[in-house]
UniProtKB/TrEMBL annotation:
Keyword Disulfide bond attributed: no
Membrane topology qualifier: Multi-pass membrane protein
GO aspect biological process, one term: regulation of cell shape
Location in or out of the cell: Membrane
PANTHER family for this protein: CELL CYCLE PROTEIN (PTHR30474), PEPTIDOGLYCAN GLYCOSYLTRANSFERASE RODA (PTHR30474:SF3)
InterPro entries registered for this protein in UniProt: FtsW/RodA
GO cellular component: cell division site; plasma membrane
Name of the protein in question: Cell division protein FtsW
Keywords: Cell cycle, Cell division, Cell shape, Membrane, Transmembrane, Transmembrane helix
Positions of the UniProt region annotated as Disordered: 450-470
Length: 470
């Protein structure tokens, strides 16, 4: 008795796209800021704010557009990255609007500039542009590996962006802004993404040579002398940025990003040790003769000793008082006094409003949201199938994490103040645009990593198999 059976190649099992999960999370990411907006309005005026409906519809529309773009062009991407970024962006808009209602800040703006210009409206416009840039990244960047072709071009572009602010006047003691036709741009925000692309392409090629060790000292494998060139060059460049632009934040971000990626690529702890020693040595050296950096170090060491005579000390002192008055649960949205900090309350020091009005619990919730973005980025790096994608995902996640640490550490008194902005939350167009682009690249890498492999083509010899049974 013979039985003839036809066998065909079984295709890959369709992996869940998780887009419906993302949509449900986006609904919460829009509802929570709208509820916070309502709370601020009730606290300030005792009534529902008139702009709540428009704010909710605007944020919901932006989130819906971003979701449709992800559903169309990155179907298998991580479902948490977009809702987390939307939630932070939405809460940032609420905090900025809350500070716009402060009579103190209105009077200060009128005394300084003659007119008060609300920041929340501009921030909503920048958020819309950020979503547009996010969509453009996903639509135009079909495969993240294309970026590897531009390794050295990205290095040249990043250096240009970092050097450009040197030729423009300093603002608040630091040269980090470029003013063109009335628009102010912070090139360092975009440079962190381009630098991560360069480091990923460079380390993917050079990681084997950089991982070689010449000798062991005190439990550490020391790198060869000729391989110290890259880290010495990056260290020197970060010191030059600190000297000529007096920008401590960008220097820490730039050098820290390279050291982290170098460690990930080579798995050598010695690079971390060398990086920390060089960063501390460089910062101490510059702080001894650069007045702006020295003032921030003095404010960090004891802000209340120069509270009445130095603006930097007064800002740090007010920030610490805000965190202290917030306690565990905070004073309530719209009921704090963080606006006493002045013009930087909605930018560099916006986390102090969170600390005072939402307390320790609210501050930890914000930091947890940032930590989740970093965790999803690291998970994307682990899931990536190509070394360039792994390094790029870990680089972007590290840049995001370092920036959060530098800003939060500065306003809390853990490290000297750097002048950088809290991603998605602080007022500033450059920061919002750059971070939405960063999320877009992470989503593209995540989509490539999670996308199921195509089914193998059927073999002509296996189309029919004759099985003979007795």
């Amino acid at each position: 008795m013979s039985v003839v059976t036809n066998t065909t190649t079984i295709g890959a099992i369709e992996a869940p796209s998780r887009r419906n999960t993302e949509l449900a999370l986006l609904a919460f990411a829009v509802a929570i800021p709208v509820f916070a907006y309502l709370n601020v309005g009730l606290a300030l005026d005792g009534k529902v704010p008139t702009g709540m409906l428009g704010y909710g519809l605007g944020l919901g529309l932006l989130a819906g557009v971003a979701h449709l773009v992800v559903r169309k062009f990155a179907r298998y991407a991580d479902p948490l990255l977009l809702p987390l970024a939307t939630l932070l962006n939405g809460l940032g808009l609420v905090l900025i609007w809350r500070l716009d209602q402060s009579p103190r800040l209105i009077r200060l703006a009128e005394l300084s500039f003659g007119v008060f210009s609300p920041s929340a409206t501009k921030q909503l416009m920048y958020s819309a542009l950020g979503i547009a840039l996010f969509a453009a990244v996903l639509m135009l960047l079909k495969d993240h590996r294309i970026l590897q072709r531009y390794t050295y071009i990205s290095m040249a572009v990043a250096l240009f962006l970092l050097i450009l602010p040197m030729f423009f006047p300093a603002r608040n003691g630091a040269k980090i802004w470029v003013s063109i036709a009335g628009f102010n741009v912070q090139p360092g925000e975009f440079a962190k993404i381009i630098i991560a692309i360069f480091f990923s392409g460079y380390l993917m090629v050079k990681r084997d040579a950089l991982a070689l060790a010449s000798r062991r000292f005190m439990g550490l494998y020391l790198p060869r002398g000729r391989d110290l060139g890259p880290i010495l060059g990056i260290w020197a460049l970060s010191i030059l940025i600190l000297v000529f632009e007096t920008d401590l934040g960008t220097s820490l971000l730039f050098f820290g990003l390279f050291v982290v990626m170098l460690y990930v690529a080579t798995e050598r702890t010695s690079w971390i040790v060398f990086g920390l020693l060089m960063s501390v040595g460089g910062a101490v050296g510059v702080a001894t003769f650069e007045p702006h950096v020295q003032a921030r170090v003095n404010a960090w060491q004891d802000p209340f000793s120069c509270y009445a005579t130095d603006g930097a000390c007064q800002q740090i002192g007010d920030a610490l008082l805000s965190f202290g008055s917030g306690g565990t649960l905070g004073t309530g949205l719209g009921q704090g006094n963080s606006d006493l900090i002045g013009f930087a309350a909605n930018a560099d020091f916006i986390l102090t409003t969170v600390g005072e009005e939402l307390g320790l619990a609210g501050t930890m919730a914000f930091l947890l949201l940032y930590g989740l973005i970093v965790e999803r980025g690291v998970r994307t790096a682990l899931a990536a199938r190509d070394p360039f994608g792994k390094l790029l995902a870990i680089g972007l996640s590290s840049a995001f994490a370092i920036q959060v640490f530098v800003v939060a550490g500065g306003v809390m008194g853990l490290i000297p103040l750097t002048g950088m902005t809290m991603p998605f939350v602080a007022a500033g167009g450059s920061s919002v645009l750059a971070n939405w682009a960063l999320i877009g690249i992470l989503i593209r890498i995540s989509d490539t990593a999670r996308r199921p492999a195509p089914a193998p083509a059927p073999s002509p010899d296996a189309e029919m198999t004759q099985v003979v049974r007795p």
